[in-house]
Design brief:
heterodimer; A: 603 residues; alpha+beta; five-stranded mixed beta barrel; globular; B: 247 residues; nine-stranded mixed beta sheet; 6 helices; 28% helix
């Protein structure tokens, strides 16, 4: 295993300098209890937990103690429980929860940085607390006081785990087709019957209870998404004496997955014995709307996950490239001369810079969304709406860029190892497998792309896209104060104009009612949109690095760090932004080859 | 039981070291500082464990240094110390530091004064013994285990090939080595509470340095690895004898 999986220095640069978390602690009462020194301690503590409780077990969790259902219980790696104890005791399970519920009221920005540390160390194990805190937040937002008392408190204390149960065998991306049923037996209490699949963390052998946040259709409810309700369905429910008794939630089996083997993906059967109780969350038939609060959070989490795995892969590849000697400089053919570390080869540098530019660009994009989230939490009125709209726009980008490009990043990292990368002797093969899920769960890239083009770009007459353009313009103006950056500011300005043109071109199909044509290449539109948005993040980073070099009297180590930022920004503009040209060509193309009525063409 | 833990600020272990003023001073520009690990992981944590076991008492941390040492001190408070004292002076030598802490500790009647076995920057391991002389109290160095029963402590020291077990009555000074305790990671509540715990800044007393540094030198860099054909033992022996001078 490599020595390093994440850079705390980079996280602090993004948190403090690029995304200005001090803005929250200085200006908003909700966050004034915190300061930057405390954030330093917290992130260092997170790194210590990650180094001690997660990273050393990353490979073992992939190869040993892979979850299986044995005697009705799903076994997990014994270290998971130890990690969760340390995680909970350190306060991370409740870090985002308001103080009134016993939480730390931490800005989401800081929380996201800590999650990047944890996920980079061991992404599969960290899904347990990630899902639990997401489910607890859902109860906090929409559940009754009784549900909060009985379930949420146990979850944020780490005693009980949580999941979200959406997918069914016949209803994956199409939630409107789900059939799990709920029948009211007394006020707020329902008999649940149905099966859910691919439930991450759906069962375990270490927590006293598991609280499933489950979507089901109340008997007689309208068809489609308008008839879906949300329920709390515990693995064990309390009887009248207050004792935990079986609630007829059966772990039918654990899927044998490609990666993320630390956490089981379960097939769960609810109510096979006609004895499964669920408790309605909020109002009936509003379940999907509620669930999307958790789902949107989960989509941001996937962005964190993708960035984090990409980070771990980058540092592993970087270390290997410095240590591994192979070949000589192309101008030196003398076999008597010692071989050089492969980092000296141009193509290896290209792959490393690609990894770095994707990883740190993705991290910055995730934190941009975190900033919008925090602003939407503390602002009021029109400003709050503006922050929320911007977060809505960023969410599918955060879901897609770190996952799709993360796969590319890890793949290039694996390439640096040569044949060794394909073996279990090095961690890249595991990272490649772990990363692969990120484009699939919490809404595939296809779903996200249709969400971006079909919904987010057009909503409120393009208000969210307008906010993005305004913010990019601000960055361009700032970059233009530095001669070295003017060229890149101009490139980004041109690309933004191109993006607006393409968006108008595609929106024209929507206005004509040609919805299938409008969305046919949504995936490619997403890819282009992501490149431009991450180019913006790189220009922001490059501009701040430039300012630091000019004004902060940096140490030699800091000079290297800031110069590396500017160099990587240039790499992104020279190697990644030009990829947009091909995408633009396709998006403006009139030839449609993916809308064949006769699918026999795909013989 | 009143417990005092002496903590130092040291460069992070990954820091690249350089010197200024004709190689007589450590260059602190851009250096990331941490609490000396022996102070934090073993001395402070064992003091906290003792207090927790006894169910009463106080743990105070003390540092000699300027105001920018407060970050390191806050970390000690976040880990669990009740309060802190910073003696406002630049720590110029072991003797100077020992003098400052001894003068403060004299008036406070601590039962046990803890230190790490050494700091990871200058590796002096001197402050404890000098301070013990000034306080006229016993000093047990390089301790790996400590139990306290009433006013008597039983202490293990690792010695060549075995363990030495000692008994000593309070008050005494002890320097902690690996094995004394297990590192504690500060939790969020501790971090938040640390901001509200007292950090008292007191002026330094007069003291003179008895020793001055004339020069620091970095170790010579690693030389390139030489590969020798496994069949050529003669060359290997010659290199080990003539170049490496190890045989």
């Amino acid at each position: 295993m490599a020595n390093k999986f994440i850079s705390l220095k980079n996280l602090k640069f993004l948190l403090y300098d690029v995304h200005n978390v001090a803005q929250f602690t200085e200006n908003y009462d909700y966050y004034k209890m915190h300061d930057l020194e405390s954030f330093d301690f917290m992130l260092e503590a997170a790194l210590q937990i990650a180094e001690k409780e997660l990273y050393p077990f990353y490979q073992d969790m992939d190869r040993n103690h892979v979850p299986e259902v044995v005697d009705g219980k799903t076994n997990t790696h014994p270290q998971i429980a130890k990690f969760l104890k340390a995680y909970t005791e350190s306060g991370w399970m409740s870090s985002h929860v308001p103080e009134k519920y016993g939480g730390m009221q931490l800005p989401g920005l800081v929380n996201l940085c800590a999650e990047m540390i944890f996920y980079a160390a061991n992404n599969g194990a960290c899904l347990f607390p990630g899902l639990t805190s997401g489910a607890a937040r859902l109860i906090m937002a929409f559940g009754s006081d009784k549900l909060k008392k009985e379930y949420m408190e146990k979850m944020i204390s780490g005693e009980w785990m949580g999941t979200m149960c959406l997918t069914e065998a016949g209803a994956g991306s199409s939630l409107s087709d789900m059939v799990t049923s709920a029948e009211e037996t007394s006020e707020g209490v329902y008999k649940i019957e149905g099966q859910k699949i691919f439930i991450s963390g759906g069962d375990n052998d270490f927590s006293e209870n598991i609280v499933h946040l489950l979507l089901a259709r109340i008997k007689g409810a309208p068809a489609g998404t308008k008839g879906i309700s949300l329920f709390v369905v515990p693995k064990f429910r309390k009887n009248e004496a207050g004792e935990l008794v079986d609630n007829d939630v059966i772990p039918a089996g654990a899927y044998h997955k490609m990666g993320q083997k630390a956490i089981p993906a379960m097939h769960l059967a609810f109510g096979d014995n006609n004895n499964c109780e669920g408790y309605l969350v909020g109002e009936a038939n509003k379940g999907l709307k509620y669930m999307f609060k958790m789902m949107n959070g989960a989509r941001i989490e996937v962005g964190v996950l993708g960035s984090a795995i990409s980070s771990a892969a980058y540092y592993a590849s970087l270390q290997y490239a410095k240590e591994r000697t192979q070949g000589r400089d192309v101008n030196n053919k003398n076999p008597e001369e010692p071989q050089v570390p492969i980092i000296e080869h141009a193509d290896v540098q290209r792959m490393l810079l690609l990894q770095k530019s994707i990883t740190e660009g993705a991290m910055s994009l995730v934190l941009e969304a975190g900033r919008a989230h925090d602003l939407s939490h503390v602002l009021e009125g029109e400003e709050k709406k503006r922050a929320s709209l911007f977060l809505d726009l960023l969410t599918p980008l955060v879901k897609v860029y770190p996952s799709e490009e993360g796969i590319r990043s890890v793949s290039n990292g694996l390439q640096i190892f040569g044949g060794y990368g394909y073996t279990e002797d090095f961690p890249l093969e595991q990272m490649a497998r772990d990363m692969r899920i990120t484009t699939l769960y919490e809404g595939t890239t296809g779903i996200q792309s249709m969400d971006l083009l079909g919904r987010k770009i057009l909503m409120e007459n393009g208000a969210a896209a307008k906010i993005l353009f305004e913010k990019v313009t601000e960055t361009i103006e700032l970059a233009n104060t530095h001669d070295e950056l003017k060229k890149y500011a101009a490139i980004l300005g041109n690309e933004m104009q191109e993006l607006q043109g393409i968006t108008m071109h595609l929106a024209g199909f929507a206005m004509k009612g040609e919805l299938k044509r409008f969305l046919a290449d949504a995936n490619l539109f997403m890819e282009y949109f992501c490149i431009i948005t991450v180019a913006w993040q790189w220009l922001k980073q490059g501009t701040i690095a430039k300012q630091k070099l000019l004004t902060a009297n940096p140490s030699p180590e800091d000079v290297t760090f800031y110069e590396s930022k500017i160099h990587t920004m240039k790499f992104f503009f020279h190697y990644e932004v030009p990829r947009g040209a091909g995408l633009k060509t396709r998006l403006m193309d009139t030839e449609m080859l993916t809308m064949c009525k006769d699918t026999a063409i795909l013989t | 039981m009143k417990l005092l833990v002496c903590v130092s600020k040291t460069p992070d272990t990954t820091t690249k070291i350089s010197f200024t003023e004709n190689d007589t001073n450590f260059n602190t520009q851009g250096v990331q500082f941490i609490m000396n690990p022996y102070d934090e992981w073993y001395a402070l944590v064992r003091a906290l464990e003792l207090k927790e076991k006894l169910g009463s008492g106080t743990v105070t941390i003390i540092n000699v240094g300027p105001a920018d040492n407060d970050t390191v001190i806050r970390k000690g408070l976040a880990i669990g110390a009740d309060d802190a004292v910073r003696i406002d002076a630049n720590p110029t030598s072991s003797h100077f530091v020992a003098k400052q802490i001894a003068e403060y500790a004299k008036a406070q009647s601590y039962d046990i004064v803890f230190l790490g076995k050494e700091t990871i920057d200058y590796n002096g391991a001197e402050v404890g013994s000098v301070m013990a002389e000034m306080l006229d109290a016993p000093f047990i160095s390089f301790a790996t285990h400590l139990e306290v029963n009433g006013n008597t402590a039983t202490i293990n020291r690792e010695v060549e090939g075995g363990t030495e077990v000692l008994e000593v009555d309070t008050p005494f000074l002890i320097s902690a080595a690996k094995g004394m305790a297990e590192q504690r990671i500060p939790n969020m509540r501790g971090i938040m509470m640390a901001k509200r715990k007292p950090l008292n800044v007191v002026p330094a007393v007069d003291s003179s340095d008895l020793v001055s540094v004339t020069k620091y030198e970095l170790p010579s860099g690693k030389t390139d690895c030489k590969y020798v054909d496994p069949e050529n033992m003669e060359e290997l022996v010659s290199l080990l004898h003539n170049e490496a001078k190890v045989i």
